[in-house]
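User: Modeling request: complex.
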Amino acid sequence: MKDLIILKIGGSVFACKDSDKPKIDQKALERICREIGNAHSKIKEKSSLIIVHGAGSYGHLIVKRTGIDKGIKNNEDLLALAETQRLQNELNLIVTKELAKNGIPAFPFQSSDHAVMSAGALKSMSVDAIAGMLKIGLTPVAYGVPAYDEKQGCSILSGDQIAPYLAQHLKTKKIIHATDVDGVYTADPKMDRNAKLIPEITSKNFDKIKAGLSGSVSTDVTGGMLKKVTGLIALTEKGAESQIINGTRIGFVEKALLGEVFGTTIRR
Amino acid sequence: MKDLIILKIGGSVFACKDSDKPKIDQKALERICREIGNAHSKIKEKSSLIIVHGAGSYGHLIVKRTGIDKGIKNNEDLLALAETQRLQNELNLIVTKELAKNGIPAFPFQSSDHAVMSAGALKSMSVDAIAGMLKIGLTPVAYGVPAYDEKQGCSILSGDQIAPYLAQHLKTKKIIHATDVDGVYTADPKMDRNAKLIPEITSKNFDKIKAGLSGSVSTDVTGGMLKKVTGLIALTEKGAESQIINGTRIGFVEKALLGEVFGTTIRR
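Assistant: Request completed. Predicted assembly structure:
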């Protein structure tokens, strides 16, 4: 059986997080997809790949504007919820088509048509089909979506929730988080010039590190670095190692997929 | 609790089944969506709605060309499989956007990210999320897709399989099949001038009718009328009544959603 690698690409890397309208950084998207294609052609005999991408300007703007992450109040919210999903499907088509150009059998994976949330947390999601897709050699491409929430009507199922859920329910070797920072720092590197990169986090040093990880700076309805690392620490118990890297740097996604160690590694 | 109506719209009604490239009959799509919008505004307090649409020229061509309905043989098939799914998502976006213009909170429902097939038959699919979507008032819009098949790698999960599966697993009052014929005939009305419309089919008269239903004429990888009616007969045992109508005729979809009886009714 092949190893499973889950690559999470933050919206900040290619989907213009700070734009005031849905926008793609086409150059960044093409580069990332080329890097994934290069790596995939070398590792595909021994590794399966799931890609999970964030929404950036395709998600955060409409969610902030409509407040659907807090639930449904009226018919307008319902229309906004459906519109948000359609917008994410558009983004996913752009991403999967670019991946296909680079030889990846990129199969859209919507998540929200089978996921059930509860007060903003992912309660259940089916993994039978995705396990089968991996078996035949497809590369499923999941993405942040609005989803049914049994407590509040709907909430946001982010890529940062989907990736660890899949890692937990499918035997996963490694999760690579491509973000717009070089890894986890002792403080927010965008705010604090003295922030230092932490090369390795384990359950032993995590408590000391926590204080500095007070969430990422830019607009992000899905929560920041603390939430991300907390989830990844829990996954090490299941045998899945994580690596947080800077996906905006040329070649870093490719190198990480090929197994090079840099950025921040989170292991047992 | 609201009644559930499932509306299946055949690809032949709006997606140019006989075109030699993926093509939408824009005028037909706009009319159908307007009719659904008109009906939805009148019935939404008492009825939930699921829409399932076929693929027409968006599906049959690529499937015939690549043979992915018979499974996966090589890397090219894998790329074709992923491309087929992306093409269906494009079609679904066109349909859901047109529905949204008519006031429908049309939420894409991909099916293939949780469905498991076995030798071409739908084995399992998650209905937890769709039940929740209906509860909050969304209109899920499912569509024919290529899906993982545990026996042959992949196969086609058609709208004609999705609709009865959902009907069986969600308490359903009525399934409306909008096709390009006026209902079920004693023989194929496109081939035989003496074919007569059958207004009502029950398990009692079905055996006599079977002989005439030897499958629809035009290119269709999903099987013809016989398969459709056989499935609908089985559903009457679950309390779900079906109606087969001509969706190419102006006003027929709207009238059927409003409860008018015409075409062929399949009941217990």
